[in-house]
Write a structure and sequence with these properties.
This protein is of the alpha/beta class and 195 residues long. Helix content is 32%, strand content 17%. A seven-stranded mixed beta sheet has the order 3-2-1-4-6-5-7, covered by helices on one side.
Length: 195
C-alpha cells in the first residue's frame, strides 16, 4: 500500500484592511485596531506552521496577490481563494490537506504535527474550537459534503460536521480543543495582541 503524502496546510487569510478584517472586534478596538489584531494573528500562525515543519500555502482574499507577497514575503506560496461563500472556497482545497484559519492564538506546532500524524491512520482529523466550531480540519481526500449549506459562524458547526462524517462512514481523529479569538471578550485572554 502506497504511503499517503504528507498533508499541506492551507491557511485561509484575509488581507488586514481596516474595517474588513476581524469585524467582530471593531466595537472594542475600532477598525484599525481590529485589523492590527488580524495582521498579528496571521503572522503568528505562519510562524507556527513554519515551526511545525509542514508545507503550507496561504489561500488569500481581500487584496491582490502582490499585496500579500509584499506583506508575507516572496517565499510564501499564495493561492487565490476565488469567489463564493466560505464553503465554496474551502471545497477548492485538494487533499491531503489541513485547513486552518488564523484566529487561534494558542495554536502550537505540535497541534499541526498531531493532525498530520492522525491523517496517517484516519481519513479526517478535527481540531475542535471551544465555541462549537473547529479551528482545524484535515483530510486525505476531498470531502465536499462538509462545506455545503453549513451554518458557518454558529455553535452548530462541529456537531453538524461530525454528523455528516458519521453518515459518510468517516471516523475523524480529534486533537486538542482550543479557543478562537473572535469577540471582544476573547481579547482578555491574549493581551499581547492588543494594539
Amino acid at each position: 500500500m502506497a504511503a499517503i503524502p504528507e498533508p499541506v496546510v492551507a491557511l485561509f487569510a484575509k488581507y488586514p484592511h481596516p474595517g474588513k478584517a476581524k469585524t467582530r472586534l471593531i466595537p472594542a478596538l475600532g477598525p484599525s485596531g481590529a485589523a492590527h489584531v488580524h495582521r498579528l494573528l496571521v503572522e503568528r500562525t505562519i510562524a507556527t506552521i513554519r515551526a511545525s515543519g509542514l508545507a503550507f500555502d496561504v489561500w488569500f482574499t481581500g487584496a491582490e496577490r502582490a499585496d500579500f507577497a509584499e506583506w508575507l514575503g516572496d517565499d510564501v506560496t499564495l493561492v487565490d481563494q476565488g469567489e463564493g461563500d466560505l464553503g465554496a472556497r474551502l471545497t477548492r482545497v485538494g487533499g491531503p490537506a489541513i485547513l486552518l484559519g488564523a484566529d487561534v492564538p494558542d495554536l502550537a506546532p505540535r497541534h499541526l504535527r498531531d493532525a498530520a500524524s492522525a491523517l496517517e491512520r484516519r481519513d479526517a482529523v478535527i481540531g475542535p474550537a471551544s465555541d462549537g466550531g473547529y479551528y482545524l480540519l484535515g483530510f486525505n481526500r476531498r470531502l465536499p459534503f462538509l462545506f455545503t449549506d453549513m451554518p458557518w459562524g454558529t455553535d452548530a458547526v462541529l456537531a453538524e460536521t461530525l454528523q455528516r462524517l458519521s453518515q459518510a462512514g468517516v471516523e475523524p481523529a480529534m486533537i486538542d480543543e482550543l479557543e478562537d479569538c473572535d469577540r471582544p471578550a476573547d481579547l482578555a485572554r491574549w493581551p499581547e495582541l492588543l494594539p
